[in-house]
Amino acid sequence: MSEGVTESAFVIDDRETPRFRVHRSALVESDILEQERRLIFDRSWLFVGHESELNEPHDFRTRRVGGRPIIFTRHTDGTVQVFLNSCPHRGMAIETRPEGTGRFLKCFYHGWSFNTEGTLVALPDEDSYGPDFDRHNLCLARPPKVSSYRGFVFLSWTEDIEDLEQYLGGACDIIDLFADQSDVGMRVIGGTHLYAIRANWKLLSENSYDGYHAMTTHHRYLAMLKESGKDLSKVFAKGTGPNLGWDLGNGHAVIGGADGTGGTNTGLGRDLSTEAALQAQVTRRDHFAAKYGEHWANRMFSGRNLVLFPNLALVDLIMGITIRTYYPVSPDYMEVTAWSLQPGDDDPELQHMRQENFLTFWGPAGLATPDDIEALERCQQGFAAYELAPWNDISRGMVRNRPNFADELQMRTFWREWDRRMTGTVHPPEVPITPRAGRVNWPYQPPSDPHRVGEPA
């Protein structure tokens, strides 16, 4: 094997040609999914929810994280708690409602009741268990680790994992760009999008920060924007600096673009239609520039698509922010959950316009989400012939010194980490990994790489 090529049964990473290929069996075969559950989902930090979903003590949400049912709640003292949604008596799911409020969580089967700290507080006919019965040994089970960063709550199904911030690495800076957009905290707007895609889960990781497909897959949406008078050349200007793909370490990656309009351009949303809304946006941008500096404000008021390995996408297209998580049911079927995130102190008119743009683009009946679903499902249909056409090509941009947002560096970053987890194959980073730099040290300038060829004409 050439010194410039690393490969496994699934990934050929050829830096000399250059070429990057992924074997389609990784997107089809059931035994690979079983390995993913054990080697990836059971050994990663997985998103649980945002703290703003629990406004008051005793609010709760139920959902599945990494294939396991959990209760996400806030206790009397204000602390956020995460438990397995499984009664320690006979295992029944205690709460079936997706959300609610209650001081106690009561099992329907035998009436065992727990408080929002997970403690067993009552059960029928406790005397039948004898004088030595210790209810404190029958608390609701917890995931081995739970942690949060800037309001985003994660769990790990293994104790043997690095701290959350170490796992996030350079992605902490990108999460800061989301979280810093409000002085009082970001908040999830009420309501959840729940849908399914008949495709392999890894395709949605790819799609969530794929800038290459926008012009073709979403041409109807872009035509609508153009008809509304929007100048799309500003949205898709390649430029320099943040208009790139960034490897953030540990399989996390982001694409992003600078906004040279002082925060008045709404990215892939319709332009703000009233002078009051325009002024409110400029005022917000000026406030944060004074608070954090011009460089950081420019980054805050630009768009970015972040995927945290393995299955969390945070996408800010200025018009709104979506949180999207997804989990495989079978190799060709995934369930998706998505929320809308907005500044808690947003101007009411801006909030309304952002939410309209959010629904127009990301909504289940919008002009983008159905396009993406159709594209991914057609890919999965094509994989039925993978024995005869076995490889996906993910090489776009490998010839550039710094791949741009329409290239595929971010997907290659995902697949290199996936391959390391699944096969133990270590692929050297394609570009220098972007470390956590913080607001003060931004803009981060990656060192030059003498092994890469020059930018093609």
Summarize the structure.
The chain has two domains: 45-148, Rieske [2Fe-2S] iron-sulphur domain (Rieske Iron-sulfur Protein, 3-layer Sandwich); 182-423, Naphthalene 1,2-dioxygenase Alpha Subunit, Chain A, domain 1 (Alpha-Beta Complex). The chain is α+β, with helices and mostly antiparallel strands. It has twelve helices and 22 strands.
Major sheet: size, sense and barrel closure?
Answer: 8 strands, antiparallel
Low-confidence runs: 449-457
Helix percent band: 25-40%
Superfamily (CATH H level) name of the largest domain:
Naphthalene 1,2-dioxygenase Alpha Subunit, Chain A, domain 1
Q: Which radius of gyration do the C-alpha atoms yield?
A: 23 Å
What is the fold-level CATH name, i.e. the topology of the largest domain? Naphthalene 1,2-dioxygenase Alpha Subunit, Chain A, domain 1
The level-1 CATH class of the largest domain: Alpha Beta
Structural class: alpha+beta
Mean pLDDT: 90
Distance between the termini: 31 Å
The CATH architecture of the largest domain comes to: Alpha-Beta Complex
Q: How would you describe the shape?
A: globular
Describe the protein's architecture and organization.
The chain has 457 residues and is α+β, with helices and mostly antiparallel strands. It folds into two domains: 45-148, Rieske Iron-sulfur Protein, CATH 2.102.10.10; 182-423, Naphthalene 1,2-dioxygenase Alpha Subunit, Chain A, domain 1 (Alpha-Beta Complex), CATH 3.90.380. It has helices at 30-39, 164-168, 171-179, 201-208, 214-217, 219-227, 232-235, 275-292, 294-300, 348-362, 369-382, 409-423; strands at residues 5-7, 11-14, 19-23, 45-50, 59-65, 68-74, 80-84, 99-101, 104-106, 113-115, 120-122, 145-149, 152-156, 186-188, 193-197, 245-249, 252-256, 304-308, 312-316, 321-330, 333-343, 391-393. The strands form five sheets. Strands 14, 15, 16, 17, 18, 19, 20 and 21 form an eight-stranded antiparallel β-sheet that branches. A four-stranded antiparallel β-sheet has the order 1-2-3-22, covered by helices on one side. Strand 12 (145-149) and strand 13 form a beta hairpin. The relative contact order is 0.16.
